[in-house]
Amino acid sequence: MSLPYLGQQITIYFGSFLVVTGVVGNIINITVFASIRSYRTTPCTFYFLVGSFFDILYIMLNLVSRIAISGVRFDLTRTSVSWCKTRNFSLAFVSLCSLTCSCLATIDQYCATSKNISIRRLSNIKRAPAVLIIMIIIWLCH
């Protein structure tokens, strides 16, 4: 058994496990954050909800294509320049958006628990979609 073959098998089986557990876990996050009424009124859970969508996109773009490359040995990034550029751009964009959603949730929790009333007012569910749209525009331009 050679080392490249072993690496392919690990990619196929462990990657498949990660795809299933990652997608199922993020779907559970989305279900919980979207179904409980008290969660829908806080900007922190809104950021985590959107971050879960970005996490699912990242898993599908990255892991599924790597499993296909290892399993079928057909690398579309070597034959299609447009797919190669689109995949690299999408992976960078989605991962940055996911990370930023977690950071925004942390900042929101700081604002929500501050002793200063003016800082507490920054934690507002009405501002969260606008902040998220600005974040997406910034990462698209990046």
TrEMBL record:
Domain annotation G-protein coupled receptors family 1 profile: ranges: 25-142
A cellular-component GO term for this protein: membrane
Coiled-coil annotated residue ranges, if any: none
Signal sequence range: none
Source species, domain of life: Eukaryota
Location in the cell: Membrane
Keyword list, A-Z: Membrane, Transmembrane, Transmembrane helix
Main localisation: membrane
Protein name: G-protein coupled receptors family 1 profile domain-containing protein
